[in-house]
Design goal:
The chain is of the alpha+beta class. The chain contains three helices and twelve strands. Strands 3, 4, 5, 7, 8, 9 and 12 form a seven-stranded antiparallel β-sheet that branches. Strands 1, 2, 6, 10 and 11 form a five-stranded antiparallel β-sheet that branches. The longest helix has 36 residues. The protein is elongated, with a radius of gyration of 47 Å.
């Protein structure tokens, strides 16, 4: 007879199918199912920390394609520019100072200089396939590093393998020069050393192709003008001078 005080630990075992009694067995309770609210943890769309690997792969592929297209455009543009440079071979123009005359030159006791400088240049375009357009030219005459007078040159165009004569006139009524003794010392030796500087905005054109505007810097140093202490004028000594041209 079963002990009535023994606690129930499970459910009774089912009877045997053949009608005979079976040995008593102890049944255990079933494992409890997971809570219903845990479904949100396994739901991809409801989990903020879940990252879809397929979406990430598509995004990475798209970025790689954009980067590849960008690199390809740079290579294509660089190749086109390099080929055009090989075909055109652009060169900067050449400047030569042919004559430089000084008139009405005077220097007062308070270091004020007056005078008129007339310069004539020959500008040569060495390019056989490029036309040059000089949109604006500024010029100045200096004594050492001190500016005496400034002027502008009218715009002009220059054909292929062309030489153009350019004139510039500088007039000073009362320009102050700090090194008055230097000029007086040079005049006593018969010559005064001036220099000319110019800045030009130039466009290069080959057929329908336009290059961007370039800034040319022209420097003509060591221009000795024969002017003595008792004279008020003189001209360039030593013949024509080639000027330095840079970008």
């Amino acid at each position: 007879m079963a002990d009535q005080n023994r606690p129930v630990t499970g459910y009774p075992a089912p009877p045997a199918s053949n009608g005979y009694p079976t040995k008593t067995a102890t049944a255990y309770p079933y494992v409890a199912p997971p809570p219903q609210n845990q479904g949100a943890y396994f739901n991809v769309s409801a989990n903020p920390y879940y990252s879809d690997p397929y979406a990430n792969q598509q995004r990475a592929t798209f970025i790689r394609r954009i980067f590849a297209v960008f690199i390809a455009c740079i290579i294509i543009i660089g190749t086109i520019v390099f080929i055009m440079w090989l075909i055109l071979r652009p060169q900067v123009p050449q400047f030569r100072l042919d004559t430089l005359t000084l008139s009405n030159f005077n220097m007062s006791s308070n270091s004020l200089i007056s005078g008129t400088w007339d310069a004539r240049f020959t500008v040569r375009n060495p390019n056989s396939k490029i036309v040059l357009y000089y949109d604006h030219i500024e010029a100045a005459v200096f004594y050492k590093s001190e500016s005496i007078s400034e002027t502008t040159v009218p715009p002009f165009a220059q054909g292929k393998k062309n030489e153009t004569t350019v004139r510039a006139t500088f007039v000073s009524a009362s320009a102050y020069v700090d090194d008055r003794n230097g000029i007086s010392s040079e005049r006593s030796r018969g010559t005064v050393d001036f220099n000319l500087r110019m800045m030009a905005r130039v466009r290069f054109k080959a057929g329908a192709w336009w290059a961007r505007r370039r800034i040319l810097k022209i420097y003509c140093p060591n221009l000795l003008i024969g002017v003595s202490t008792n004279s008020t004028g003189g001209s360039l000594s030593g013949g024509s001078k080639n000027c330095r041209v840079g970008l």
